Amino acid sequence: MMDKALNRFTVIIPTIPKDYLRMRHIQPERVIRYLQPEELVFIGNKELVDIVNDDIAGRYAGLPVRVIWEEELVKRQPVIDAVKDHVRRVNEEMLGEVRCGWYYQQFLKMSFSDIYDGRYYMSWDMDTVPLRPISMFDEDGHPYFDIKNEYIPGYFHTIEKLLGLKKNSEGSFISEHMIFRCDLMKEVIKAIEDSPADGSKYWEKIIGVIDALYVMLGFSEFETYGTYVTAKHPDIYSRRNFRSLRRGSWFVNEKDLTEEDMEWIGKDFDAITFENAEQIPDMVQLFRTPKYRNNMSAGKFYETILESGYFGEYKDGWLDGGGQGEWYAPV
User: Fold this and answer.
1) Helix 100-111 vs helix 221-232: angle between axes, to the nearest 10 degrees?
2) pTM above 0.90, yes or no
């Protein structure tokens, strides 16, 4: 049986002020309530640090919340410069399209292992709201890999070049969250730093091997960690399918989400995500129509919309929020 004392964990949320301000009214308290972490740690720039510290004295009074300046983990500008320099060398036409900050945020999640003295820590997306209690460990104490349906070849191209590992399991490790075992993340980082790729720091080596074809989507910390642990430590994690409504913004603005909405959606989904996307008026109207709410579960409602063809061809993986089954970066 699980020893809960051994499986305590901290939740980290790397974010930017804009997203934090958009979601703070609804998300942090629910992360604490439904995930039961020892601590909730926001990670971001100086502006975010000031905002969260003000909230700690106010809305989070008495809750286990703190904030870390991102530069204490990884210096931002060297990463941004390295990504830009690499793109200039391999595919300069993409320079204006590559999201340098997206790469940087992944390295923050990895480098949290350098300062954390606990066994497990969990990364959770700022735009995702848990809807019901979620345990990250099975009854025997094994942490879960929450599996989705997605395949982006650039991620595995980079993994193979750095670690010599190919995709070794069905599904994707990319979700709105992942629970890391700290010692294993350190092991992943060391394995990357021991690779013959150019650079000394792990993030320099990662950036340096990203192929010209995949600079937009060239690395995933989740796919890398999951692939490595599955190959080297196959008995540590359990696997499960995690049901989340990834495209909540189609139906409702996060500011308009009610307790009734969350109760209805939470009967079928563990979480709802509000990506920065415009609402679709037709979908909002359907979402608020009582006859659908009263006669359909949220899962059936979502599946019916997808099968209607409104968003094009319905493919496996959409219902659990996992994407289009297999998604290939453009050639």
Assistant:
1) 40
2) yes
